DNA sequence: CGGCAAATTGACACATCTCAAAGCCTGTGG
DNA sequence: CCACAGGCTTTGAGATGTGTCAATTTGCCG
């Protein structure tokens, strides 16, 4: 198999791909796998391949040393995201990646990525950019967790996830599927599950969202972005030569 | 001028550099500049060069759109850090970089980095790794801000900063210079300055640190790391072929 | 229908914020 | 050498945000 169209689209939103670039992307061999909800897609430790999301939602889970139940989810990944591409240069990860709902991923061998970096600098820079966008999202999460209170913080997450999903075409009409339990939202935003529940209720009461199990409908994009002070520039959507 | 030894050391802690690699690093031209406390080293927006820390401490500052005083500091940088190398692939930054205390940096032109990526894949991967380590630190900050309460959170920052400074040789004997006001610590950790003050007092009361203006002495590394549940693996110090 | 996990609610405890005031340090000018 | 001003640190008290515990309700699935 070859690298999925989602990732190609992700790159094309940020830079022009030459015919040669596209051909090279198609030549990278991949292995497809599916996972059920809760399964570990990538485990803690050393790796010789990285995975690319094709379908569903995954998250990076950091657990605390020694203490069983303390965990944080430090990133979420939608189709088109190169989930653990950073493992290509880090070699070893201190977090795992788990599936939220049914998930399909493609694995790319690091050996093939080394070959790419040896001969194709433009694609290399674009892959590098991919990990830099992840880092920009991390900074935005830090910013949000520092500046926003619970409802606004949750609203920020919804804005980001909708925009990211809409950009690659897995969400539209201000509606998305977000298969996260309130307990998992708590691990993402750093609140207790009960407080997440109150934040969800608050967004409902303000008529900003309709939220039924995993189905989220944004009733007022304007209201939600305003509450969250959401500024999407960090998602880096401009097409520029890189 | 050529790239500073601190950065070379930073890389050598993570991978072996060949004679050719070292030579190439020396050939990259740089421009040195110094800044006074509070000055903006890098501004928000597009850039054609990135900067490398030589002396002092800098931080990345995210400001909120429209609202004057809400700001967060999403990263700190010590000598050897390639502060905004991510701008090489992102092209545009949504944060600024400011100096904490007197600072000396070297600027590297992106044009020179492009040349490097065109011909020297090993160094390219190491530069890429540098930004991936930044991202790993971001994730650890997210984790800390999600899991730790104020004193432990502050302790975590101290552990990290000491270790990073000790590794490149600008701190030793469990003593470091950290020219941050309590207001700035507040922007880093997401608390109010008053609460930071109480956290500092708590660490003092527990006999974990002596802290006088910018001089921090860690009285019990063991106690501090235990309180912070500090696990340094994320700083990625193992030497591996990359 | 019953059973389970998740979502929801309420009450209270704890963490953190805000406002206000006092203390401390340092540089400056008399 | 002293007095003062300004910025930072420290402290206190009350308000708000968030966590914990316990119980109830809901929704799904066997």
Which features would summarize this protein structure in a list?
five-stranded antiparallel β-sheet; homodimer; 2 domains; DNA-binding; alpha+beta; 44% helix; Jelly Rolls; Arc Repressor Mutant, subunit A; 242 residues
Describe it:
- 2 copies of one chain form a homodimer.
- In chain A, 44% of the residues lie in helices and 25% in strands.
- In chain A, the strands form 3 sheets. In chain A, strands 1, 2, 4, 5 and 7 form a 5-stranded antiparallel β-sheet that branches.
- Chain A has 9 helices and 10 strands.
- With 242 residues, chain A is of the alpha+beta class.
- The two termini of chain A are 27 Å apart.
- In chain A, α6 packs across α8.
- The interface between A and B is large, with 53 and 53 residues.
- The structure holds a DNA duplex (30 and 30 nucleotides).
List the helices and strands and how they pair.
Two copies of one chain form a homodimer.
Chain A: H1 5-12, H2 19-27, E1 30-35, E2 40-42, E3 45-46, E4 49-63, E5 71-77, H3 87-90, E6 92-93, E7 96-109, H4 110-119, H5 121-147, H6 150-168, E8 175-177, H7 182-189, H8 193-205, E9 209-212, E10 215-218, H9 221-228
Antiparallel strand pairs in A: 1-7, 2-7, 3-6, 4-5, 4-7, 8-10, 9-10
Helix pairs in contact in A: 6-8, 6-9, 7-8
The structure holds a DNA duplex (30 and 30 nucleotides).
């Amino acid at each position: 198999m070859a690298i999925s169209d989602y990732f190609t689209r992700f790159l094309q939103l940020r830079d022009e791909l030459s015919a040669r670039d596209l051909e090279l992307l198609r030549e990278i061999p991949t292995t497809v796998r599916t996972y059920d909800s809760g399964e570990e897609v990538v485990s803690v430790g050393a790796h010789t391949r990285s995975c690319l999301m094709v379908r569903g939602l995954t998250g990076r889970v950091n657990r605390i040393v020694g203490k069983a139940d303390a965990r944080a989810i430090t990133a979420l990944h939608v189709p088109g995201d190169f989930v653990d591409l950073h493992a290509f240069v880090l070699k070893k990860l201190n977090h795992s990646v788990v599936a939220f709902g049914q998930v399909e991923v493609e694995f790319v061998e690091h050996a093939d990525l080394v070959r790419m970096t040896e001969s194709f600098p433009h694609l290399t820079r674009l892959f590098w950019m991919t990990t830099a966008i992840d880092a920009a999202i991390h900074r935005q999460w830090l910013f949000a967790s520092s500046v926003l209170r619970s409802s606004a913080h949750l609203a920020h997450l919804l804005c980001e996830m909708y925009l990211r999903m809409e950009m690659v075409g897995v969400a539209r009409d201000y509606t998305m599927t977000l298969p996260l339990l309130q307990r998992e939202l708590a691990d993402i935003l750093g609140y207790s599950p009960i407080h997440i529940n109150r934040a969800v209720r608050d967004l409902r009461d303000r008529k900003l969202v309709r939220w039924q199990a995993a189905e989220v409908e944004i009733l007022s994009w304007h209201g939600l972005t305003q509450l969250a002070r959401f500024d999407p520039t960090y998602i880096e959507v401009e097409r520029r030569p890189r």
